[in-house]
Amino acid sequence: MKKSLKLLICLTTIVFVVVLITEFQVVFFGEDAQPKKSDCIIVLGCKVYGSTPSPFLAWRLNKSFELYNRGYGNYIIVSGGKGQGENISEAQAMKNYLVSRGANSSRIIMEDKSASTMANLINSKKIMEENNFKTAVIVSNKYHLKRASLMSEKQHIDASYAGVFVSQYKTHEIIGYVREIPAIWKYYLISKG
Questions:
Q1: Model confidence over 166-188: pLDDT tens digits?
Q2: Range with the poorest average pLDDT among 5-14, 16-25, 38-47
C-alpha cells in the first residue's frame, strides 16, 4: 500500500472518530440533562415567524413554563433580539406567548439585544447579576444544550439544563444534531484563540 494512501486512511479514521465522539457528547448531554431548582429559567432564542414563535421556540417556551409552574425558577429570562424576517424581537414574541398562556408578566424578563447563543448567555448573565440571581435552568433543544453548556461555563453561569425534542419535526432535529458537530468544533477553536 502506498504511503499516501495509508496516510489518507489514517486521517479519515481520525476524523470519523472525532466526529463520532463529538456527536455522542451532543446526544448524551441533551438526553442526560436534568434541571435543578434555580433562581431563574433562561430560554434561548430561536426563529420567530413575523410575531409568532417557530415550533422549536414554542416548545422551548412550553418547557420553560412547565418548569416555572413546577417551581424550578421564580423568573423566566427570555433571550433573543430581532432577526431578519421578524416583526418583533424574539424576546418580545416569547413574552407575548408566555403571557397568552397565563404566565405572570412581571415574572418574565426580556433580553432583546442578542443575535447568537453566546450573546444570549452574556446578556442573560448581566440580567442575573442585576437581579442577584445566582443559578439558572437553561432551556433549548436537546441538540443545542452541549454547546450552550460550554458557553455558559465560560460566562461562569451556575446552570442546569432542560431540553426539548420537537417530535413532529424529526428531520429538522436530526439536522440540528449534525450541525452541532462543526458548531462545537468552531466554538472550541474560537474559545482557544
A1: 999 999 999 999 999 999 999 98
A2: 5-14
* DSSP H stretches of helix in the chain: 3-32, 55-69, 90-100, 117-130, 142-154, 170-192
Judging by DSSP bridges, how do beta strands 52-53 and 48-49 pair with one another? antiparallel
pTM: 0.91
Q: Strand pairing partners for 75?
A: 40
Query: Pick from 89, 88, 92: which is nearest to 109 by CA?
Result: 92
Q: Are 137 and 160 in contact (CB under 8 A)?
A: yes
- Cα separation of 40 and 25, whole Å? 26
Interval 88-98 mean pLDDT:
97
Give the N- to C-terminal CA distance of the chain in Å, as an integer.
38
User: What span, in angstroms and rounded, lies between the C-alpha atoms of 37 and 53?
Assistant: 26
Asked whether the predicted pLDDT for residue 1 surpasses 80, the reply is: no
164 residue type, one letter: V
Domain 33-178: which CATH class? alpha beta
- Boundaries of every domain in the chain: 33-178
| Residues 6 or more apart whose Cβ sits within 8 Å of residue 88 | 48, 51, 82, 96
Model pLDDT for residues 73-91, shown as the tens digit of each residue: 999 999 999 988 899 999 9
